[in-house]
Structure formats: C-alpha cells, structure tokens
Amino acid sequence: MGDGKARLSRRGLLLGAAAGAGAAGGALAHRWAAEPAPTPEGPAPNGTLTVPFHGAHQAGVETPPQAHGTFIALDLEPETDAGGIRRLMRLLSDDAARMSRGEPALADTEPELAEVPARLTTTFGFGRGLVERVDRAAVPDWLGPLPEFDHDRIDPAWGEADLLLQVCADDPVTVSHAVRMMLKDSRSFARVRWTQTGFRRAHGSQPEGTTMRNLMGQVDGTVNPAPGTEDFERLVWGGDKPRWLGGGTSLVLRRIATHLDTWDELDRPAREAVIGRRLDNGAPLTGEDEHDEADLTAKDESGLTVIADFAHIRRARTGDPGQRIFRRAYNYDHRDSGGQDAGLLFASFQADPLRQFVPVQQRLDELDLLNEWTTAVGSAVFAVPPGCAEGGYVGQTLLEA
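Request: output the structure for the sequence above.
Response:
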C-alpha cells in the first residue's frame, strides 16, 4: 500500500471515510496483534512497561521522568481553522493512546517498532496562536512570551509556537518512532518549527527517585513538589484558569546553554560555592544530605555566610510558598566541527507562570553567579490541557466548548 492510501485509510477510520479504507487499517492492526514478537523467558524487560494515556491529567507531567525526551514545536498552516485543529488532535490523541500501550498507530508501516512502549508518554501543549484560532476569549493571561531577562540571549529559532508535543520514553527508538508517526499525521495541518531532544540516566541505572545531574555535574531538581501531594495539586494542577484548562497546567520550556569549557576552569570548591551545594551528594553547604534544609544564616570562621549571596540555591529560594515550580528537565549535547553545544532543556510545570516562574527567574537574573556559565537561548510557554477519557481526545474541552 502506498503512503497516500495509508494516510487516507487512517483518516477514514477516525473521521468517517470510506468503509473499505477502514477495513484496510483494521486488517493491519489485526495482523500485528495476531503475530506478537516472541518474548524471552525470565523477568519482563523494562520495555514492556506502560503509562496510561487516558485520565484526568495528561501523562508526562507527574510521570517519573523517562530516560529520553523529545520536544517538537509545530506552527499551524494558515488554512488550519478550529475544525482542522479538532481533526488534528483526534488523530494525534489516537496515535499517542495506541502507542502508549505498545500497539501501532493505525496504518503504521513499521508496526514492529511500536512493540516496545518503554513507558512512552505524549504530552500536548497549546500555544497562544492555537488557542486564538479557536476562541480569543479563552486565552489565559499568562499564555505568551515571558518578560525579557537581562542575561537571556533568546534565539527566535527556539521560540513560541502553536502546538507542542513532548514525547518521552526509556528507549530512544520508541521516542523516534512515536515522533515520526505523529508528524506524519500532522503534515496536512502544521509544519515543524523546532525539535529539541534530551536525555537523562538510562532506566534502571540508578535507584528510582534519584535526582538527575546536569552536564555541569550538579544535582538538578532537589527541591521539587512531590506528585500526589496537596502541594503538587495546588502548585501544578490548581490556580485560577479558564474553564477549558481545569485539570491542566502550563509548561515553560527554556533551552539553557552551559559553557562547559569555562566551567572546567573552576576548582571543586568554587563550583560548590556557585551553586551552594556539595558536588558529591548534592547536600547544601550547611548540611550533610541532599534533602537537608539549607541554613542561609550560617556563617564560617571568618564571619562570611557559608552559602553566599550569589549562590544559585539562595537566589532560587522564595519566602512565598506559592511561587514554587515543578521541574522535569533533560540534558542535551550536540557536537559538530564547530565544537560542543550542550546544556539543559529546563521544563517547568506550574499553574501560573507569571505568578510562579517569573519571580524566581527575576531573582536569578539579578545576582545568580551561575549566569556566568549559563545562558537561556530558547524560551516558550504552552498551556497543557487536561487529559481525556477513552474515546475522547486532548483539547476537547477547548475545541468543543
């Protein structure tokens, strides 16, 4: 079957096209289900683990971070109206739901690549442009570019877009295949603006719950609200939102370049002073263990504060418990003949970016010494709609309001 027919039969199944096209897609799905790949004896491999797609909230926020993540930003084609967005989100939601179960999307020409879900999640975010095409009155006040910060050097190539797909799994082949399938179904509606790919430690290489380390060697994400707590519900899922976004949240994605060559010039004590934490276990300089509370008043023998005014953890600290955010970051590292381009894809989830993210970032921008070795080069804000029930699709609360 040629690519044109495969795409036609897929749309037929979901959008009411000819019965013959639906039969072709159904036969493909039946053939895949009837001929599973053989499994070896012994414990089930990590690749068989799944995360449900359907639910009150989208997967990929509370989900323990997977080893690999790809963020794809799409801009809608000029002719894609609210009806087109509705069709697109039906298609993409169906793709994501099937592949999260380890099943191929309809008309998948490489169904064997979908057999390893490896905790695959797909999280959708809506940019301001997409929401405006549906209903200008439905745009949250905070949905749009962040205020300018002095130390930012934002490249528009990594900027705002209409639709975001955050695709994460513990296997890079799974992520690649899922991205390819969803971009196939997006071609008639949108074009890719940018793609950002990141990684963490491989699944199973460290105990569950271990805080990730960035490429500067520092633990990253120690003080994070815990999913399932009242704190998390309030800080991430709560807040004053438009009705269609109830049960959803916001995502701020920042591409932060790290200048590793000059960071290498610092000795270990200097690196620890910049952050305010020990390198070996991530403990604050005034504590013994990673999760010890930092004592910002403690002084050394010379009368100087142990955690300096310029230290990252002091600048990130807030006296307002409502200003906290939930971090779910990934490292990136690209090398070519021009050298190394490495850093952090800083994914921050919060109920209201203006109320929570911006004040923290302003304090970091003012005095954080870490600014000497890091530069934000990309920034985008998205509204993350609530999840959906089986038979529904993400964005239904906006598109069928």
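The first strand starts at residue 68 and ends at 76.
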